[in-house]
Every structure is written in structure tokens, then in C-alpha cells.
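Reviewers of the previous submission asked for a worked example of the structure-prediction workflow described in the proposal, so we include one complete record here. The input consisted solely of the amino acid sequence. No template or homolog information was supplied to the procedure at any stage.
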Amino acid sequence: MRLTRAPRRTPPESIIPLIDVVFFLLVFFMLIGRMDATAPFDVTPAQALTGQDMPGGGVTLSIGAEGQIALDGAAQDQTAALDALRANITADPTRLIRVNAHHASPLSEVLPLVAAIEGMGARDVVLVVTPAVP
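From that input alone, the workflow returned the following C-alpha cells.
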């Protein structure tokens, strides 16, 4: 009696490379996907203009680290500074208003002043910033 061996089967394909590819695709799409909520309308953020000269003229409102306020170099309280700004803006609504705030001054003190200046009818309000030194 002669026994024959069963034909040798080819080993099944390994799915390990397929799992690797799926994992890499998952990581790739997680990295490029947006996870934040987007607005239902077009929003174009403001662009900073660095390396350009500061526009001349106008009025400068300075805000110190502890909330002190100066208008064109003269220290004043907030009410007097805003009244003087209102007079300047009423006289010339196109006058440039520069807001120069100390880097340690809280944003909760700067933004209400900017909103008040815009509410007075100022057309151009410039926030003075210094680029970070690498």
C-alpha cells in the first residue's frame, strides 16, 4: 500500500501588515482632522503687521501693568482719559488711536477700553505689540 501525502497548502496571508496600514491611516486622519468647532460662516482672522513703521500722528493711550492709564504721556484716571479721547474723536473721527498696553496688564482691563474707544466712533484703533525675540 502506498500512501500519498496530502498536497501541501500555502500558508494563509498574514493580516499583520493590513492592521499596520489601518493603524497608520487612523493616526494620519486623527492628526490632520479638525477637532474644534467651526463657525457656520466664513471667519478671516486679523493679521498682525510686524516689521512696519508705526503710523504717525494720533493719540496714544498707555496702560500700565497695574492698570495705570496715561494719555499722550500724561498720567490720568480712566474717566479723564476717556473724556479727553472722546473730545479728540469728536473733533476728528479719522484720528488714529494707539493703545500701548504693558505685557503684564490683564486683557480684562485692555479690551473694555478698546471697546469704549470704538464706541466713541474712532475709526482706527491700533494695538501696539512687540514681536517675540527668538
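The longest strand covers residues 96-101. We consider this example representative of the routine output the project will generate in years two and three.
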